[in-house]
Structure formats: C-alpha cells, structure tokens
Amino acid sequence: MAYSIGQVAEKTGLSAYTLRYYDHEGLMPFVQRNPAGRREFSEHDLDMVDLITCLKATGMTLKDIRHFVEIAMEGDRTLNERLALFRKQRDQVDQQIAQLQAYRRKVDYKVRYFEACCEAGTEAAVTGDCDLPDMPIYIDDALRVKPAHK
Q: Which residues, by range, are in coiled-coil regions (predicted)?
C-alpha cells in the first residue's frame, strides 16, 4: 500500500512540511514518486520515517541521520558501520537518561521543599539543601505561620 505525504503526516505526527524538509535534506531518498511527482510512502518507508524520528529525538544530527540512511541503502556491506553508529547513539541516550534522572531528583526535591513550605505557611520555616536532593527537608516549628482563626 502506498501512502501520501498527508497520510504519513497523520500516521507519524510529523507535519507534511517536516517530511518535505527531511526529504530535501536527503534523509528519505528511498521514497518513490508517482508519475505526477508526488511522494508515495511504503510500509518500509514508514518504518524508516519512524527510525529517523527516533534518532532525531535522541539528539542525532541530520547530517549523521543522512549518513545512516546512505549507508543503510548500501546493504549488508555496511552492517558493522551501522552497528557502531547505533552503539554510539545508545551511549548518548544513556547519558541523556542519566542527566534527566539527575534533573528529576532535583525537581522531586523542589516538590518536597514547596510542600513543606505550604505546610509551614512560609518558606522561612523550611531548610534543606537543593544540592543534596535526597536529604531531608526540615520545618522549624517556631517559624511556622499560624493559621488565622475565622
């Protein structure tokens, strides 16, 4: 089955503009055109678009993605080169995950910190160390804001 660029845009969540741009940048030389010059995507092409999207989302440059596509089209003689490329990308993804986990710890700390501030009624009563996000947060009861009685 052949898919139009609009159908591919709908299936992938990429805009038709982005798909055309990727094609213009040499990322999709595998896409065939019909006699009217319109792109016709196959199921395999959809898989490649999905892979291109994955690589882009993990920080691979368009230049490196283009290189991957070019060597993939050369067939089995580039298997080792493609394996090396994906091992390198996996390492980069692992680094991104580690950085995101560190950011998550800091955000978790801030959630706990501001929960304590809300409980105390003031930030002045709360102590903690954002550089040590796994450490406890303390509330000084003497500095708590007493709720006003109605």
A: none
